Amino acid sequence: MVSIKDYESDYANQWCPGCGNFGILKAMQEALVQLKILPHQILVVSGIGQAAKTPHFLKCNCFHSLHGRALPLATGAKVANHELTIIVNTGDGDCYAEGGNHLLHAIRRNIDLTVLVHNNSVYGLTRGQASPTAQIGMVTKMQQKGVINTPLKPILLALSLGAGFVARGFSGDSQHLSELIRAGIQHKGFSIIDILQPCVSFNPKDIYQWYKQHVNPLDDSQHDPGDYEKALMMATRDESKIPIGIFFQKEKPNFTDQIAALSDGPLVSKKFNPDRLESVFGRR
Fold first, then answer.
1. DSSP state for residue 151 in the 8-state scheme
2. Domain for residue 274, yes or no?
3. CATH label of the domain that carries residue 28
4. In DSSP terms, which residues pair with 17 in a beta bridge?
């Protein structure tokens, strides 16, 4: 049996009281327990930021990498052991700005990772500068006259690049979010879940009450996640109601399944043979 206690870390949590990250952490734990995944069977990778502290508060394999570099590290880990469930925790700045180039190629490769983007429109670790998802006019300590850049649309970006699993969640609804995380882990291929996450310290506009008035769970009876064109249409709309749920899902060959050397087991289980390396590097 797997329980929440199996994933409870001994480290003291340093997030601000009321931070949306707590809801994401809870949803992750619940999803892993429901899937009956043991702590030693997963690896949680992160970059830099408040979202990237998530692995500290989970008792499991984890790796805290550099700013924006969680995805290439997670890719290497998946190639080394493709039987390992790998979850990436990253912020909107960490993933969509510093790590934006890595995101493009992780989607293109269709590497079997589940990427949870804690999207609060600010850099919370460095006191609230605007991130790529900040809306025009948003005032911060750095952007004192308001943001002037067009905000990035993560769902539209992921869809246009051909991601096989694209979803949006809300950290204030941990049960719904847990269902999305569970579906993302079960999907064989690249999964990205953009999670609307209030920052109670540095984003006074996008608070829990505002989101609860504006988020709108997709109706399974009316929305087909296999309809790519409809998913694109939903991702381009600016609506008073923000749809949350699975926008699109379609499985296709993932990266490690196409590597012949991995067909008989993970690299980590193979015996190291230095003679084979010598035969390659010893050539003139």
1. P
2. no
3. 3.40.50.970
4. none
User: What does the alpha-carbon distance between residue 38 and residue 57 come to, in Å, rounded to a whole number?
Assistant: 16
Q: How far is the C-alpha of 183 from the C-alpha of 239, rounded, in Å? A: 25
Number of compact structural domains in the chain: 1
Whether 188 is in a domain gets the answer yes
Cβ-contact 138, 148 below 8 angstroms:
no
Is pLDDT of 280 > 80?
no
Q: Determine, yes or no, domain membership for 273.
A: no
- Predicted confidence at residue 47, as pLDDT, reads 94
* pLDDT, tens only, 93-150: 999 999 999 999 999 999 999 999 999 999 988 888 999 999 998 898 889 898 999 9
d(CA 149, CA 265): 47
pTM to 2 decimal places: 0.94
Residue 48's domain spans which residues?
A: 4-259
* Residue-by-residue DSSP string for 53-70: GGGGGBSSEEEE--TT-H
